[in-house]
Amino acid sequence: MAVSGSKDFEPDVAEYIEEAFERCGLELRTGYDARTARRSLNLLFADWANRGLNRWTVEQVTQTVASGVTSYPLGTITLTVADSGSFTIGETITGGTSGTTASVITKPLSTTMTLTIPSGSFTATETITGSSSAATTTVTSDASLTNVQASVDILSAVVRRSDQDISIQRIGRDQFLRIPDKTTTGRPIQFYVDRQITPLFKIWPSPENNTDQIIYDRIVRIDDADTSVNTVQVPFRFYPCLTAGLAYYMSLKKAPDRVQLLKGIYEEEFDRAATEDQDRVPLILVPTAASLRAV
């Protein structure tokens, strides 16, 4: 007998839900059943983010620095205006009606500019003014924070200068706080990820030009399971883990007698998927200076 020659098996949300209900010994019967299952599926995705199981959503971001600006959104915030040509990179803009402020990072187009995280919300049609250029323009639409708020974490980062990439070290909140002079300028060598609802990363020293680039790999949250006809943003090798996880989550609400069984299956599938979802590289151990001194 001939094989199918097909490699396009991709269940949609409804099929995952049906499989989960069957594992619970139930049948999908009502619209509410589908709605509560989609909610559980989205909560499962949040659990995966906490467990670090989002490597297929890693994307690389290139952020050109602005002189004197040390805090950048973990992603892109774009403000659409009537004309951005007269504003200068690094200056603070202020909304005339809302009083919202932000710093200009880059001006990729004549009617848009990318910003640091605003202190509030700009109002459509309000006038904004630049702090150093004194330029003015009208806001066409407020900047969306969705792209930034979808960020989970940063894996690694480098600073690029003259086509040369140099690694920069990630430090913690306390280490960043203890930097004596945060206004020191130079080529950035350290960064701290402030994981707020709208996360940002802070670099040190403060950039000395508008040409260096920070290039980082960020993990982005998995797309929501909004409707039952959607497919799910997971690779083929994670289908069993997703199905087992959803069945376990649904058993908590629909089949308490199967909770322990389905939890065990889910944890086994998750462990197998997480073990597979790793870089296959040689293990390299580098001793620290402290360990060498102790010998």
Spatial order of the strands in the main sheet?
3-6-5-4-7-8
Structural class: alpha+beta
* Shape designation: globular
Averaged pLDDT:
93
Total strand count, please? 16
Largest sheet entry: 6 strands, antiparallel, barrel
State the helicity in percent bands.
Answer: 25-40%
Relevant terms:
single chain, 295 residues, alpha+beta, six-stranded antiparallel beta barrel, four-stranded antiparallel beta sheet, 7 helices
Q: How would you describe the overall organization of this protein?
A:
The mean pLDDT is 93. The longest helix is centred in the first third of the chain and has 21 residues, at 31-51. The protein has 295 residues and is α+β, with helices and mostly antiparallel strands. It is globular, with a radius of gyration of 24 Å. The protein folds into 3 domains: 13-54 and 224-276, no CATH class; 56-69 and 150-220, no CATH class; 78-143, no CATH class. Strand 4 (92-95) and strand 5 form a beta hairpin. It has helices spanning 13-23, 31-51, 146-149, 173-177, 239-254, 259-276, 289-294; strands at 58-64, 71-73, 78-81, 92-95, 101-109, 112-115, 127-130, 136-141, 151-161, 164-167, 169-170, 185-186, 190-194, 200-204, 206-207, 213-220. The strands form 4 sheets. The chain has a 6-stranded antiparallel barrel with strand order 3-6-5-4-7-8.
